[in-house]
């Protein structure tokens, strides 16, 4: 006989490090229990049980028995039996995955109530019939909706009906008889939709609720949320079965949420919302407006003081911002949940800095507490506000940023307009999980109800999307597609601006200004910001990252201005200067002449005209990058990109011929364009192939680079040119180019002291696979992961993202576009092979990467792991790469 797998854990058996198995909520309930905090007793059904259920559609063997054993223990501890008619134990059944998925999965409260135990509950509550029947109707409503898929509106209609009959709009005006009547109405709705009576057997209620939580892992909104948040789809959820405590037993009861620091700014202090005489779900749903947590001090000083003490304890224990859900039941404080709290990007930096000051963490740990995505967020611009712009409403700054756009009132409309390229602000009374797609599509979210912990606030923060919640001066009328505020009406399509930091709402489009973090990086900080806590924290953490990182960070830049900016952002050189960008504009004609040249003389004269122009480009860049290496890539794209499009040219020529004009020149051009036309230009005549086919082209570029370096050096600066050959697939290509280049360099450089390196891009799979041979001819490699991804997967980089990647993402073929974040297993393997074999052949070989991946946080970690010397990315991503390279090294 086999021993049953352990699927159920008491809170006392778990701890905070068991999140994989017990989910985040369960692991933290266990941790609080073991810290001796007042957690209502309960047990956790593991994610493994969920996964087994989802795989087979049946509860795994042994689960039912283990639940029975743990339930008995819970009943003994509480001195009450589940659903007992006289003195019932009631439990909540709550989802809790490894990663928080706010509101995405199911919860059922008050399990154990039935026609008989409702009487016992009333007795427990001191003869409070109203409370007991209200709890029962909540159970039928939640159970019906989440377990049996009864349409929620039916229950809401019945509730509205009961209130109308009573002549009120307030739930609290319904008395016990009204609620008893409502229970009858709810039961009828239940029977109508399910074909069965509402289950009276407590254990059956429990089992069905557990099953519903398991299944909610695969609810559509949960699937969408996971995809957006890049949470793996196969983790499953744990289920927490917890003894009920009640925040709705009267004015000495209530429920709330608390943060140990401000999750918006990171400021120290007491932050949270409290709602007297209510259940926890009321706060999260934002159904009634809460009061600031500080007011609890007046309402119940004992609980308030106790809560503050627990918060300090939790923060000291977790050494981080904690968020907490609590309930007060008739003056007794219960801790219902804690976790390391979500926070804005600014708060992440500020809090990490504070915790270092407080000696709770060291700077290495502070580096782990922030990330490049957050830094990128802080580099967004904010509103520029002057007197013309007066806010029309102020809600809660739930997620920072500055967003302007057309007002929409439904998720569907948001998706529609966003698809047309419009920037939209989704305005709702409150959001719920069904609004997820609209929230993704919107530039920002504005709600009239709900606090910092409402659905809108939590989800928007997670997405890094601007959100103002609880702007209660706004009266939202969804069916009429308008809202009114301060005596004005705002219709769908009107523009509003929302500030997710201050919570202010403006009519019209407010202009924006740069972030102080960017100003800090640029060294152009306004004096009033020099001492700003965010800037100080960023400075401190970036300095530490720079001290720790092994990867250098260069930039991709091909103008002096970009080079200068990147240098201010901390770039340690240029990793990719794309020279083809220098062949556009006025110079296009010269290039056209080069391509159309019929004789050596014609060609040489075009090249001679291009030479000084190129040289000036390089002089400017070398000057800006004085003392730092500059990798200049010889021209890469197919030449026909410099000619007019074939079809248009053909039409022009035909029209001109029609008119009898002299079209000899145009005809020659057309013939050239035809001759050069390629079906697959990305796999055609580009890169090194071009250099080997058009005599003198690479030579001109090499000469321009060398002459510029000599000129800059003669002027007293230090130029460190590195000439890079693109699209090499065989060492022979590189050897041919190199032999010619070295001659020119030797001739130009003379005794100037300038040293020029020659290396290659590794962006064709064959180059990666023959890197040992190629390294014999290369002083450095730079991985072109854009082309390497394109050619390794056979995905056209210009087409596939819009064409079918959405489907691939939906199917989970990959979690993120391989053009955005390096595919470690495939493309990454090519990088690894080339790095190893290249270094084996030439130990001093310099290795870098200059594809888009150089600025992607995950990819930076990968490049650190495979031992590259540097990453190169766009100027704006340089700080992100510096930070992530530091994080990878600690
Ligand atoms: C690359 O292919 O990764 C690269 C940097 O070159 P480009 O993007 O110019 O093709
Ligand atoms: Mg390339």
UniProtKB/TrEMBL annotation:
It comes from the Bacteria. SUPFAM superfamilies: Glutathione synthetase ATP-binding domain-like, Phosphoenolpyruvate/pyruvate domain, Phosphohistidine domain. It is an enzyme of class 2 (transferase). The keyword Signal does not apply. Residues 422-503 form the PEP-utilising enzyme mobile domain. Keywords: ATP-binding, Kinase, Magnesium, Metal-binding, Nucleotide-binding, Pyruvate, Transferase. Residues 65-289, 294-346 form the Pyruvate phosphate dikinase AMP/ATP-binding domain. Its EC number is 2.7.9.1. NCBIfam families: PRK05878.1 (NF004531), pyru_phos_dikin (TIGR01828). It catalyses: pyruvate + phosphate + ATP = phosphoenolpyruvate + AMP + diphosphate + H(+). Residues 540-886 form the PEP-utilising enzyme C-terminal domain. Belongs to the PEP-utilizing enzyme family. One of its GO terms (molecular function) is pyruvate, phosphate dikinase activity. Signal peptide: none annotated. This is Pyruvate, phosphate dikinase. Its cofactor is Mg(2+).
């Amino acid at each position: 006989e086999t021993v049953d797998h352990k699927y159920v854990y008491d809170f006392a058996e778990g701890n905070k490090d068991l999140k994989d198995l017990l989910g985040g909520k369960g692991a933290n309930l266990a941790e609080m229990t073991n810290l001796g905090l007042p957690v209502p007793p309960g047990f956790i059904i593991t994610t493994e049980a969920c996964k087994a259920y989802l795989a087979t559609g049946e509860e795994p063997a042994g689960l039912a028995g283990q639940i029975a054993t743990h339930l008995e223990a819970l009943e003994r501890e509480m001195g009450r039996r589940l659903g007992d008619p006289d003195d019932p134990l009631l439990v909540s059944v709550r989802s809790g995955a490894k990663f928080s998925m706010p509101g995405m999965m199911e919860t059922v409260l008050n399990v154990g109530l039935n026609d008989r135990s409702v009487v016992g509950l009333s007795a427990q509550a001191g003869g409070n019939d109203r409370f007991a029947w209200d709890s029962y109707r909540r159970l039928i409503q939640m159970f019906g909706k989440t377990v049996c898929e009864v349409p929620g509106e039916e229950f809401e209609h019945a509730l509205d009906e009961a209130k109308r009959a009573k002549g009120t709009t307030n739930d609290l005006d319904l008395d016990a008889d009204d609620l008893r009547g409502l229970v009858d109405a709810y039961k009828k709705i239940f029977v109508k939709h399910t074909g069965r009576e509402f289950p009276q057997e407590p254990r059956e209620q429990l089992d069905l609720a557990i099953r519903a939580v398991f299944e909610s892992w695969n609810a559509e909104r949960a699937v969408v949320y996971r995809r957006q948040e890049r949470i793996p789809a196969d983790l499953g959820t744990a289920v927490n079965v917890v003894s009920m405590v009640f925040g709705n037993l009267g004015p000495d009861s209530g429920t709330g949420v608390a943060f140990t620091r401000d999750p918006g700014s990171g400021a120290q202090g007491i932050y949270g919302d409290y709602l007297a005489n209510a259940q926890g779900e009321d706060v999260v749903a934002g159904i009634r407006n809460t009061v600031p947590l500080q007011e609890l001090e007046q309402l119940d000083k004992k609980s308030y003081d106790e809560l503050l003490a627990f918060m300090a304890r939790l923060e000291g224990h977790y050494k981080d911002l904690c968020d907490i859900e609590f309930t007060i039941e008739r003056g007794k404080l219960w801790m219902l949940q804690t976790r390391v709290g979500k926070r804005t990007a600014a708060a992440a930096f500020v809090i990490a800095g504070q915790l270092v000051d407080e000696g709770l963490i060291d700077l290495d740990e502070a580096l782990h507490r922030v990330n490049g995505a957050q830094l990128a967020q802080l580099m967004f611009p904010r509103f520029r506000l002057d007197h013309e712009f007066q806010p029309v409403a102020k809600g809660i700054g739930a997620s920072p940023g500055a967003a302007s756009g057309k007002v929409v009132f439904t998720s569907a409309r948001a998706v529609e307009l966003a698809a047309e390229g419009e920037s939209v602000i989704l305005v709702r009374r409150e959001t719920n999980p069904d609004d997820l797609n609209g929230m993704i599509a919107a530039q920002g979210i504005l709600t009239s109800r709900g606090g910092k912990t409402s659905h809108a606030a939590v989800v928007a923060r997670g997405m890094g999307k601007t959100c103002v919640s609880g702007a209660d001066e706004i009266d939202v009328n969804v069916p009429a597609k308008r809202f009114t505020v301060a005596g004005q009406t705002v219709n769908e399509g009107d523009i509003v601006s929302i500030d997710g930091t201050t919570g202010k709402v403006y009519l019209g489009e407010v202009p924006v200004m740069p972030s102080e973090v960017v100003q800090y990086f640029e060294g152009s900080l306004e004096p009033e910001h020099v001492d700003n806590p965010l800037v100080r924290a960023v400075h401190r953490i970036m300095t530490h990252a720079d001290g720790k990182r092994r990867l250098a960070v260069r930039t991709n830049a091909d103008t002096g201005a970009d080079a200068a900016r990147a240098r201010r952002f901390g770039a340690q050189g240029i990793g990719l200067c794309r020279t083809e960008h220098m062949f556009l504009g006025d110079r296009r004609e010269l290039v056209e002449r080069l391509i159309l040249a019929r004789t050596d003389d014609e060609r040489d004269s075009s090249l001679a005209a291009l030479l000084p122009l190129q040289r000036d480009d390089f002089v400017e860049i070398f000057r800006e990058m004085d003392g730092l290496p500059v990798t200049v890539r010889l021209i890469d794209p197919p030449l026909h990109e410099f000619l007019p499009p074939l079809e248009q040219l053909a039409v022009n020529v035909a029209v001109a011929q029609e008119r009898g004009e002299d079209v000899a020149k145009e005809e020659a051009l057309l013939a050239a364009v035809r001759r050069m036309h390629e079906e697959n230009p990305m796999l055609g005549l580009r890169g090194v192939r071009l250099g080997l086919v058009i005599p003198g082209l690479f030579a001109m570029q090499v000469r321009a680079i060398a002459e510029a370096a000599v000129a800059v050096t003669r002027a007293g600066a230090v130029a460190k040119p590195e000439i890079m050959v693109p699209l090499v697939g065989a060492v022979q290509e590189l050897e041919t180019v190199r032999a010619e280049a070295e001659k020119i360099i030797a001739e130009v450089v003379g005794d100037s002291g300038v040293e020029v390196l020659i290396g290659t891009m590794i962006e064709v799979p064959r180059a990666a696979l023959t890197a040992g041979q190629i390294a014999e001819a290369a002083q450095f490699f730079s991985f072109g992961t854009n082309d390497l991804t394109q050619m390794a997967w056979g995905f056209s980089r210009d087409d596939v993202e819009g064409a079918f990647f959405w489907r691939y993402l939906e199917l989970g073929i990959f979690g993120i576009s391989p053009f955005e974040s390096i595919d470690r297993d495939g493309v990454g393997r090519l990088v690894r092979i080339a790095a190893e074999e290249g270094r084996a052949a030439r130990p001093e070989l310099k290795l870098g990467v200059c594809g888009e991946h150089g600025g992607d946080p995950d990819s930076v970690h990968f490049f650190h792991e495979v031992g590259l010397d540097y990453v190169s990315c766009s100027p704006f991503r340089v700080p992100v790469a510096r930070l992530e390279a530091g994080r990878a090294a600690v």
